[in-house]
């Protein structure tokens, strides 16, 4: 009876690993494996069909020599910055206004957030109709008697990208509002009470105490919005189709066009690698700060 | 009412109008005939409730070459969404259960790898996946799309369940182990019965994501197997004859109805999914 | 035959050893308490007895079976958790019968067990409720009921009372004691509360830094602590430790004691051979609050000295008076009628017969 029983390696001990194995394998192959595969394509001479040779940075050179790519990159920058900033500002202010113990808060919140449940294709289709100069907003104002009113951004090469911003903000700002509202509700009421006892006015309390405390919320909103911006594809396809011409192309539509309709797999994969770089440039500092926080 | 309150309600109402207007315009337009559209503005109310455009969008509108309306594509989307949502949610629940209650050496690393997977732009995997679906012989089919949605949904569902189960006390699992329950028994009898909220979050999130997906749909499906978002885009951009805005709008509403319905019925869980996805880790 | 034998049990996480060779044996029907500050390894040890954590080295024997590497379910144990760990989706009666259900006991027999346990714990009216609808004390009872239903050879309790409020804790404490006396169960009970340890245990293992510091009955540990840590840990308010100079006198030893500027010589009339080598050096006098009291006639062996009162804390039955001895704050337990106020001098009586001495360096008891 004193003989120590040896630890037995039973099926049961492997069970948890077996259960997560499919996901683990899928992650390795379909995310990391495919990323490497895609990287290889971007260094190959692939056109219509993938070829597994090595041409170094040729495809990247072709990409960078392509005007359309730079238009797409510039559009992403314009769209990204405006989209993110506007969403954050609108979201924050709506959240602050909603946080003033208003009536029917639930209903209002529902209204602000429902666009998030829609497909970007639906959003694009709707706004395409509203912004259409012949029958949309422009027509409405003219019928109302403002004869000289002009709003033709959708068909104006210089302005079309801003219509994408409008539709994007319409769809996503409610989400920032929801995040900010959750953040505001998380503020310790005793801190607000203490500040009021100290004689601070409500605007001052928001400006100096509550909003600075929302830092982490802004940060996550920023990450998600940036992510939406870089991946934005559906909205542009549905709203402008990348046009007029290729005036509203973004990297995602550029990549799709080259890889799947123009038979330029090499350039397309190089473009997607550039998108990956952009995301990495954002999430690495994010992960770094998260991990550092956890360590502390 | 003080000036402050008036200002607050004023701003909130204006914003509500901004969000509601496009939906209102869509509904109004879908109920008009082309004559009314040409003569009025987009906010002129229809003279009568006219569902012809809806009927056309559902059963006879042209989406590219075929002219059978959206109905077939609507059911395609249903066929894709149901299995993809169920499988990715079940696997996500099991993953979350293992990652919190049966940790092993390397399980945190695994979770980290998976988390990064939620952040990559899908453009990076489009080409290899297209080739792989070709090898597997399921390119352009419903099965191909189901597989793609399951794989790239797993990271999110796992994240949901992992973050939910992490707050379930481990003592509960220990108590069940002492009571003699094993891995599956604990999952089935203890963990699953308390998972309803996160199951709802995961199902709604996956449902919305997959129903609304366009990128995978447009790249990996063709012809009769396309999901509704792709069909809607084709319908809107099919340029044969007169532009029928009323049909476009009816089609857009049809495509949006399932997710809108879910949002209105279970909005609370939808918001939770959104914020859970935002506050990772 | 022992009910439980823990033989040279060690636990390490990587390079860190959290348990350093534990040896404990208890008889059937004994109530063993593992007590110690947080991080001492007591909960880890309990989890290892339960089979929830692996044993790095050594053996655990329950009855006549070595269970070191067995699954929890094969060890014939039941456990009551700190958070109660009631299954939230099940009713009270389903919670109690879950283990029986897993063991495939027929439903009618399960019902008999549930009814017996419910009667024993007076929770019959709660059987169809969910844990959410129970108060803290009721949850506690259900958690115990779940363990009792298993009728195991050993019960394990992991700080079961620490989530209750003070009053309920005292009530449940005496109920557990009563249950133990009535059912003659073998119990291993983890707590950080030394009062629980004193009141409940047949035997106590005081743990610190992954080692058992002392193993014995509550009274042994209270009266004869092995070292300064145990002396200070057991008892509330805790023992006073006063460093003082030891010198030889005609009848034994003398301690130089200073308070309020006055030096008194305190005579030690115990026979402690070990003290001889400390003459002329410093020792730590360990004296419990109840050994310094107001002056009364019935203790001829006691010494009396004047002290400066710093703080007065009435508790009802006694008043705690803090004085300063050799520069150290010292708590005395005084009868409430012996009124004094802060800043005033007061004559206090020292019962040195039960005082203990520690080496100031090693903190070990001088015997």
TrEMBL record, chain A:
<protein>
    <submittedName>
        <fullName>ABC transporter permease</fullName>
    </submittedName>
</protein>
<dbReference type="InterPro" id="IPR051393">
    <property type="entry name" value="ABC_transporter_permease"/>
</dbReference>
<feature type="transmembrane region" description="Helical">
    <location>
        <begin position="110"/>
        <end position="130"/>
    </location>
</feature>
<feature type="transmembrane region" description="Helical">
    <location>
        <begin position="20"/>
        <end position="40"/>
    </location>
</feature>
<dbReference type="InterPro" id="IPR000515">
    <property type="entry name" value="MetI-like"/>
</dbReference>
<dbReference type="InterPro" id="IPR035906">
    <property type="entry name" value="MetI-like_sf"/>
</dbReference>
<feature type="transmembrane region" description="Helical">
    <location>
        <begin position="265"/>
        <end position="288"/>
    </location>
</feature>
<feature type="domain" description="ABC transmembrane type-1">
    <location>
        <begin position="73"/>
        <end position="288"/>
    </location>
</feature>
<feature type="transmembrane region" description="Helical">
    <location>
        <begin position="205"/>
        <end position="230"/>
    </location>
</feature>
<feature type="transmembrane region" description="Helical">
    <location>
        <begin position="76"/>
        <end position="98"/>
    </location>
</feature>
<keyword id="KW-1133">Transmembrane helix</keyword>
<dbReference type="GO" id="GO:0055085">
    <property type="term" value="P:transmembrane transport"/>
</dbReference>
<keyword id="KW-0813">Transport</keyword>
<dbReference type="Pfam" id="PF00528">
    <property type="entry name" value="BPD_transp_1"/>
</dbReference>
<comment type="similarity">
    <text>Belongs to the binding-protein-dependent transport system permease family.</text>
</comment>
From TrEMBL, chain B:
<dbReference type="GO" id="GO:0055085">
    <property type="term" value="P:transmembrane transport"/>
</dbReference>
<keyword id="KW-0812">Transmembrane</keyword>
<feature type="transmembrane region" description="Helical">
    <location>
        <begin position="186"/>
        <end position="207"/>
    </location>
</feature>
<feature type="transmembrane region" description="Helical">
    <location>
        <begin position="249"/>
        <end position="271"/>
    </location>
</feature>
<keyword id="KW-0813">Transport</keyword>
<feature type="transmembrane region" description="Helical">
    <location>
        <begin position="142"/>
        <end position="165"/>
    </location>
</feature>
<feature type="transmembrane region" description="Helical">
    <location>
        <begin position="7"/>
        <end position="28"/>
    </location>
</feature>
<dbReference type="InterPro" id="IPR035906">
    <property type="entry name" value="MetI-like_sf"/>
</dbReference>
<keyword id="KW-1133">Transmembrane helix</keyword>
<feature type="transmembrane region" description="Helical">
    <location>
        <begin position="73"/>
        <end position="97"/>
    </location>
</feature>
<comment type="similarity">
    <text>Belongs to the binding-protein-dependent transport system permease family.</text>
</comment>
<feature type="transmembrane region" description="Helical">
    <location>
        <begin position="109"/>
        <end position="130"/>
    </location>
</feature>
<dbReference type="InterPro" id="IPR000515">
    <property type="entry name" value="MetI-like"/>
</dbReference>
<dbReference type="GO" id="GO:0005886">
    <property type="term" value="C:plasma membrane"/>
</dbReference>
<feature type="domain" description="ABC transmembrane type-1">
    <location>
        <begin position="74"/>
        <end position="266"/>
    </location>
</feature>
Automatic annotation (TrEMBL), chain C:
<dbReference type="InterPro" id="IPR027417">
    <property type="entry name" value="P-loop_NTPase"/>
</dbReference>
<feature type="domain" description="ABC transporter">
    <location>
        <begin position="4"/>
        <end position="234"/>
    </location>
</feature>
<dbReference type="InterPro" id="IPR003439">
    <property type="entry name" value="ABC_transporter-like_ATP-bd"/>
</dbReference>
<dbReference type="InterPro" id="IPR047641">
    <property type="entry name" value="ABC_transpr_MalK/UgpC-like"/>
</dbReference>
<dbReference type="InterPro" id="IPR012340">
    <property type="entry name" value="NA-bd_OB-fold"/>
</dbReference>
<dbReference type="InterPro" id="IPR040582">
    <property type="entry name" value="OB_MalK-like"/>
</dbReference>
<keyword id="KW-0813">Transport</keyword>
<dbReference type="GO" id="GO:0016887">
    <property type="term" value="F:ATP hydrolysis activity"/>
</dbReference>
<dbReference type="InterPro" id="IPR015855">
    <property type="entry name" value="ABC_transpr_MalK-like"/>
</dbReference>
<dbReference type="InterPro" id="IPR017871">
    <property type="entry name" value="ABC_transporter-like_CS"/>
</dbReference>
<dbReference type="GO" id="GO:0005524">
    <property type="term" value="F:ATP binding"/>
</dbReference>
<dbReference type="InterPro" id="IPR003593">
    <property type="entry name" value="AAA+_ATPase"/>
</dbReference>
<dbReference type="GO" id="GO:0008643">
    <property type="term" value="P:carbohydrate transport"/>
</dbReference>
<dbReference type="InterPro" id="IPR008995">
    <property type="entry name" value="Mo/tungstate-bd_C_term_dom"/>
</dbReference>
<dbReference type="GO" id="GO:0055052">
    <property type="term" value="C:ATP-binding cassette (ABC) transporter complex, substrate-binding subunit-containing"/>
</dbReference>
């Amino acid at each position: 009876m004193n003989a120590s029983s040896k630890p037995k390696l039973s099926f049961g001990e492997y069970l948890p690993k077996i259960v997560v194995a499919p996901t683990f394998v899928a992650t390795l192959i379909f995310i990391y494996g495919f990323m490497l595969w895609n990287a290889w394509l971007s260094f190959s001479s692939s056109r219509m069909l993938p070829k597994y040779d090595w041409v170094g940075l040729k495809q990247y050179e072709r990409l960078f020599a392509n005007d359309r790519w730079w238009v797409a990159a510039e559009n992403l920058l314009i769209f990204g910055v405006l989209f993110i900033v506007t969403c954050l500002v609108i979201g924050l202010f709506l959240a602050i206004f909603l946080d003033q113990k208003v009536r029917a808060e639930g209903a209002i919140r529902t209204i602000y957030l429902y666009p998030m449940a829609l497909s970007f294709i639906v959003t694009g289709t709707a706004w395409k109709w509203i912004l259409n100069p012949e029958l949309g907003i422009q027509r409405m104002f003219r019928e109302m008697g403002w004869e000289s009113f002009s709003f033709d951004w959708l068909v104006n090469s210089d302005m079309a990208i801003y219509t994408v911003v409008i539709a994007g903000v319409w769809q996503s700002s409610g989400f920032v509002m929801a995040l900010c509202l959750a953040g505001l509700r998380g503020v310790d009421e005793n801190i607000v009470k203490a500040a009021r006892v100290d004689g601070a006015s409500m605007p001052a309390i928001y400006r100096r105490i509550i909003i600075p405390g929302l830092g982490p919320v802004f940060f996550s909103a920023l990450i998600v919005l940036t992510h939406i911006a870089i991946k934005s594809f559906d909205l542009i396809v549905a709203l402008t189709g990348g046009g007029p011409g290729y005036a509203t192309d973004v990297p995602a539509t550029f990549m799709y066009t080259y890889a799947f309709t123009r038979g330029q797999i090499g350039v397309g994969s190089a473009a997607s690698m550039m998108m990956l770089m952009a995301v990495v440039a954002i999430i690495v500092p994010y992960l770094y700060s998260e991990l550092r926080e956890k360590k502390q | 009412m003080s000036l402050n309150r008036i200002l607050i309600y004023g701003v909130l109402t204006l914003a509500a109008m901004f969000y509601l207007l496009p939906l209102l315009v869509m509904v109004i337009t879908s109920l008009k005939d082309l004559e009314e559209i040409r003569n009025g503005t987009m906010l002129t109310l229809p003279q009568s409730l006219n569902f012809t455009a809806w009927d056309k969008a559902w059963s006879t509108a042209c989406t590219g070459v075929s002219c059978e309306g959206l109905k077939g594509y609507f059911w395609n989307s249903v066929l894709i969404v149901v299995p993809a949502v169920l499988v990715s949610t079940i696997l996500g629940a099991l993953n979350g259960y293992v990652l919190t209650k049966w940790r092993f050496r390397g399980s945190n690393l695994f979770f980290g790898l998976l988390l990064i997977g939620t952040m990559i732009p899908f453009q990076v995997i489009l080409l290899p996946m297209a080739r792989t679906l070709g090898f597997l012989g399921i390119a352009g089919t419903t099965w191909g799309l189901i597989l793609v949605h399951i794989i790239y949904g797993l990271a999110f569902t796992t994240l949901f369940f992992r973050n939910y189960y992490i707050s379930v006390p481990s003592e509960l699992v220990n108590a069940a182990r002492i009571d003699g329950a094993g891995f599956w028994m604990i999952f089935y009898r203890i963990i699953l019965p308390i998972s309803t909220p996160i199951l709802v979050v995961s199902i709604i999130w996956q449902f919305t994501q997959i129903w609304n997906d366009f990128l995978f749909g447009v790249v990996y499906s063709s012809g009769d197997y396309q999901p509704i978002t792709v069909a809607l885009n084709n319908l809107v951009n099919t340029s044969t004859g007169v532009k029928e805005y009323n049909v476009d709008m009816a089609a857009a509403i049809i495509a949006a109805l399932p997710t809108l319905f879910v949002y209105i019925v279970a909005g609370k869980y939808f918001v939770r999914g959104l914020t859970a996805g935002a506050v990772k880790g | 035959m022992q009910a439980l034998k823990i033989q040279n049990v060690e636990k390490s996480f990587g390079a860190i050893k959290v348990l350093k060779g534990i040896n404990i044996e208890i008889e059937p029907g004994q109530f063993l308490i593992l007590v110690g500050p947080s991080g001492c390894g007591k909960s880890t040890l309990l989890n290892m007895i339960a089979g929830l954590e692996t044993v790095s080295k050594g053996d655990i024997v329950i009855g006549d079976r070595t269970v070191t590497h067995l699954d929890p379910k094969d060890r014939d144990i039941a456990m009551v958790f700190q958070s109660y760990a009631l299954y939230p989706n099940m009713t009270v009666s389903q919670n109690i019968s879950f283990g029986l259900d897993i063991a495939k006991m027929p439903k009618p027999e399960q019902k008999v067990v549930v009814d017996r346990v419910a009667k024993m714990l007076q929770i019959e009216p709660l059987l169809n409720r969910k844990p959410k609808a129970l108060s803290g004390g009721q949850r506690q009872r259900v958690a115990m009921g779940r363990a009792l239903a298993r009728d195991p050879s050993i019960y394990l309790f992991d700080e079961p009372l620490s989530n209750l409020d003070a009053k309920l804790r005292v009530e449940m404490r005496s109920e557990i004691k009563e249950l133990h006396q009535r059912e003659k169960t073998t119990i291993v009970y983890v707590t950080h509360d030394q009062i629980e340890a004193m009141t409940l245990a047949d035997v106590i293992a005081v743990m610190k830094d992954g080692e058992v510091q002392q193993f014995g009955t509550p009274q042994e540990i209270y009266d004869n602590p092995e070292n300064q840590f145990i002396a200070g840990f057991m008892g509330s308010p805790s023992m006073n430790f006063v460093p003082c100079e030891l010198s030889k006198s005609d009848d034994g030893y003398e301690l130089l004691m200073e308070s309020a500027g006055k030096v008194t010589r305190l005579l030690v009339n115990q026979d402690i051979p070990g003290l001889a080598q400390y003459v002329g050096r410093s020792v730590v006098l360990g004296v419990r609050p109840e050994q310094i009291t107001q002056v009364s006639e019935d203790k001829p062996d006691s010494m009396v000295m004047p002290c400066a009162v710093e703080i007065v804390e009435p508790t009802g039955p006694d008043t705690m008076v803090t004085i300063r001895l050799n520069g150290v704050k010292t708590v005395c337990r005084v009868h409430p009628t012996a009124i004094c106020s802060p800043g005033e001098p007061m004559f206090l009586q020292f019962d040195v017969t039960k005082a203990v001495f520690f080496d100031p360096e090693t903190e070990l008891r001088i015997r």
